[in-house]
Each structure stands twice: as C-alpha cells, then as structure tokens.
Amino acid sequence: MKIALAQLNYIIGDFDFNTKKIISAIHDAKAKGADLVVFAELSVCGYPPRDFLEFSEFIESCENSAQQIAKECVDISCIIGLPTKNPKIEGKDLFNSAYFIENGSVKAVVHKALLPNYDVFDEYRYFEPAVDFKCVDFMGFKIALTICEDLWNINDNPMYVTCPMDELIQEKPDLMINIAASPFAYNHDEERVLILGDNSRKYKLPMFYVNQIGAQTEIIFDGGSLVFDEEGALLDEMPYFTEAVRIYDYDQGKIQGLEAFQHEPQGDIEQIHDALVLGIKDYFQKSGFTKAVLGLSGGIDSALVCALAAEALAPENVMAVLMPSEYSSDHSIQDALDLVQNLGCKHEVIPIKEATLAFQNMMKPVFKDLPFSVAEENIQARSRAIVVMAMSNKFGYILLNTSNKSECAVGYGTLYGDMAGAIGVLGDVYKTQVYKLANYMNRERDIIPQNSIVKPPSAELRPGQKDSDSLPEYDTLDAVLFQYIELKKGSESIIQMGFDEALVRRVLKMVNVAEFKRNQAPPILRVSPKAFGVGRRMPVVGKYAG
After folding, report:
1. CA 78, CA 107: separation in Å to the nearest integer?
2. Catalytic site residue 311?
C-alpha cells in the first residue's frame, strides 16, 4: 500500500478553494501511484471554524464538498476531515469527523473522541465526543484512524476517560493514521515528535501523522507531518511552513526505504521568524488584501515589523510612514530612512507637530495651566494613528500593529494610538526576542540599521524619554513575565526564584490592570505556548493580584 500525506494550507469557509486543492492533491498522488491520500483535520472547511459551525448551511456545504471529493476517488482512496451531524437527539449537534472514501463513496466515518478545550481550542463547545471505535479495513490492512488529540496527552489529562487507541488496539490494527490541526508554538515540534513517537512505541505500530500549514488569523499551523516505525523511531519529517505531498510505501508491516533519524529542531528565533512571515502573508492573502502600512519610528519594533512585512508581501507592497514630532531625534529619523532604503519599500514623511499643537490648543480651555503629562504624550500617539489610518482608508492599506509582548503585557502603549492595527505582528514576541529576531534578519546583510538595535528604546513622546524610565530593564521584565504568563506562576512562586518582591508585585499588577487595553487590541500572531488573545481569557475587571 502506498500512502500519501498531503500537508496543505486551507482557508476557513472557502469550500470551493479547499475542495479544488484537495482534489488536485488526489490527482497528483494518484499519478504518482498512491493508493491512499490523507488530508488534515477539518480540511474540508478549515480549522478552526468556530461559530461558523452553528450555521446549518455551513455543515451542508461541508457535506456537499465531501461528495464532490468522493467522485474524484476512482482507483485511489482518501481520508478527509469535516464536521458531521450527530443523528442522536442527546448530546451536541456535531461530530469532528474523518471520512474514509473509497471507490467514489464514503466507506467509513470516524469521530474524534478527545476534544481539546484549553488554550486556543474550544472543541467541546461544538462537538460531541465519540464513544464507539472501529478500525477501517483497506487493501487487506486494518487501519487505526484517529483525529489529532486522540493521540495527544492521553495519559496525563484526567478529562479524557476514553482513549480511542486502547479500544482500537483490540482489533489488532496494522498501522495508525492520525489527521491533525496542531498549531505552531516555538517549542511544539519537539513535543509532537516525543508524544507521537511514544504512542508508536506504546502500541507497537507504525504511524502516519499529517498536519496542515497556514495561518488562520492569529493561529499558525506549521506542518511538520511525521512518520514513525513500530518502535517509535522517526522515519520522516515533512517540511515546516511549506505545503508538501509525500508518498510512503507500506508493506509487510514496515514502512519501506526509510531509515530512522533524530529530530533536529530549528532554533526558536528561526521558527518564530518563519511563523511571522507566514502569518502576515496568509492574513493578507486570505483576507483579499495586498498592501500594508505601518508607522516607522526608527526604533527596533517598527523596523522589525517593516522588514517582516517586506519579506511576506514584497517591499513594493509596504508603506512605511515616518511621523516625527518635536521630540523625535535626528538619528531616529535617519535610522528609519536607512531601513526603507535597505528594504526598498515605499515611505512617506508626515510630521505631526501641527496636528498635536492643534489638539493641545483645542484642549487648552479645559487643561488650563496643568503641567505636561501622559495626556499630551498620548495625543502624539493618537495623532500618528489618525495619519496611518487615513493612509489606510485613502489608499487601501491595512495597518500593521508593531507593539511587542512586553509592552502588551504591562500596558505600555496607547489605546487608539500605537495599539491600533488590523493584526499584531510582535504581540507574542518579548522585547528580548525582538532583538534576537532583528539580528536574525541581519544574518546575511544589514537590513535593520545597527543603531535601531543598539540604542536605548524610547517612545520619544517627551524630551530624553527612555523605556527604562517607566519599566524595569527588559531582561528582568521579560523573565518575570514569562514565569507569570507562559508558566502561570503566581507572585509568591516567582519571588521565591530570587526576583525582587517589590518588582514582581509591581509587574504583575501592571499586567492585570492592562487587561482592558489588551481586550481592545488587534488579533496577535501566536508563536508561543501562551499568547494574549483567544488562548488567554482573563476578566477585564478583577481583583486577583497573581
């Protein structure tokens, strides 16, 4: 039996696009001699469809697409993922399902049992968990077909009382196939290899695991589909962040022609770079946009976003707007100009001094003689937002947000000012990682000016301002934030690690108080195990101090 794994990029709800892509891959695999081609979880509709699942027409479109795909399965079979109706009165209305299609019709239907309900996952909101399990017979082989979580963390999650493979193994299957929608995080590839390899070893069966690639708003899928032998040894690893179809020869209980090798993960920064580029590219392409605009200050955050956008969209589709104020330093303006020259992107210089003075004069009868404060600082940030949004409206650009995770965490940003944007590019990247990413961007030639990297970070909203006037040094701040956000440790635990008590309590308070800002921020490209947004749901009003 020759098995093809199709690692593809889908668009949520674009049934015509997804169906044509699946059919094209079926024809390609058939031409290369495959007997079975395997697609990812919910490949027909895209993952995660969220509340689209509540529309009956959406479910009907999934079924119609599946029937179109089935008609193309002549002399080849396929496995596709889609939501299906639960015929029973009790329970949820839908199953998260896989169709095994052979000779133009659906031969078997497999439902997902273990429905993740953590972080970015919310499957139990929509789907009924399966309770009955049966292998699929094909070409004289018994296939244990499961869906994503059914082979994930099954031993240490008390919410899962039924393990599909423990049931399926009783039928003495010959191999396992798992179709997945496994999101990217910079540490997740190593987790996958370890857990799936352990399952192959546990059940003493070879495994074919197919993931998908592509960004669905903030959630990014990195591919990296895997093949293991019956001893849990890794035999093949498909490329990351790239579509691919590969064919494997399974015969006499073995996967032929492959030798075991060790998984060698990319570095975290390289993976984050690749994920962000794909995230930007797919956000624009899948939304029907082509051109981006951003405010370029000469600082490292906006410089990095500009460079990533130019790589994702091509330099000619990126508009960098320099908006100097009376507090902008000459070197910041020059650093920004050097960057656009290095990238070859478009740029405009639009000073905001007149706009901010007009606002200040307008407010003078109310502000009277009160001293300069954050109010005047934020008028500058919001004046810049008006400029870039005007560019967006007039010329059809989509605004990229440039705030990093450290700033998002502690609220170091202006609502309706520098927090504006359609998508947050660096909102899951700590400031210390921003520096590493900038150096990675410069690995072959200087793209981001060295002065943008080495100078002390500053919002330049008042004379001589530096970030360190308001925040701890980023090395310390990010270390505390990582313990609190990613590792979910409370203040006492973090203090016991040796961090200053006053600093810890101050930082955690800043994080919690800033929830109202994050609640109004754009979606953030997720690259870490715990990002702000759908995977971290905190009350806007709450008194827990952490």
Report:
1. 10
2. no
**In sequence order, what E strands does 55-162 have?**
77-85, 94-102, 105-111, 136-138, 141-147
Give the pLDDT of residue 46. 98
Residue 171: its pLDDT value, please?
97
Q: Which of 21, 30, 112, 286 is catalytic?
A: 112
Q: Mark out the alpha helices in 314-414 (DSSP H runs).
A: 330-343, 353-367, 374-395, 405-410
Element (H, E) at 18: helix 15-31
Instruction: State the Cα angle at 128 between 126 and 129, rounded to 5°.
Output: 125
Helix axes 268-287, 300-313, angle to 10 degrees: 60
427, 314 Cβ separation under 8 angstroms = no
Q: At what angle do helices 353-367 and 374-395 cross, to 10 degrees?
A: 130
For residue 52, give the DSSP letter.
G
Partners of 246 in beta bridges: 5
Instruction: Please tell me what DSSP assigns to residue 129.
Output: P
- Catalytic residue status for 306: no
Spatial CA neighbour of 322 closest among 350, 346, 301:
350
DSSP character for 524?
B
Nearest to 442 by CA among 300, 330, 329, 543: 300
> Residue 142 — φ and ψ, nearest 5°?
-100, 125
Query: Among the options 2, 21, 41, 431, which is catalytic?
Result: 41
Residues near 148 by beta carbon (within 8 Å), at least 6 away in sequence? 41, 112, 116, 178, 179, 180, 181, 182
Q: Is 148 one of the annotated active-site residues of the chain?
A: yes
Catalytic residue among 148, 306, 345, 408: 148
Give the pLDDT score at 214.
Answer: 98
Q: What is the token pair recorded at 112?
A: 């997902």
CA 16 – CA 21 distance, rounded (Å): 9
Which among 176, 183, 211 is positioned nearest to 7, based on CA atoms? 211
Amino acid identity, position 478: D
Helix axes 431-441, 268-287, angle to 10 degrees: 90
Block mean pLDDT (10 aa), the chain, length 546: 98 98 98 98 98 98 98 97 94 97 97 95 96 96 97 60 87 98 95 94 97 98 97 96 98 90 90 98 98 96 98 98 87 93 97 95 95 94 97 98 97 96 98 98 96 85 79 96 97 97 96 96 98 95 81
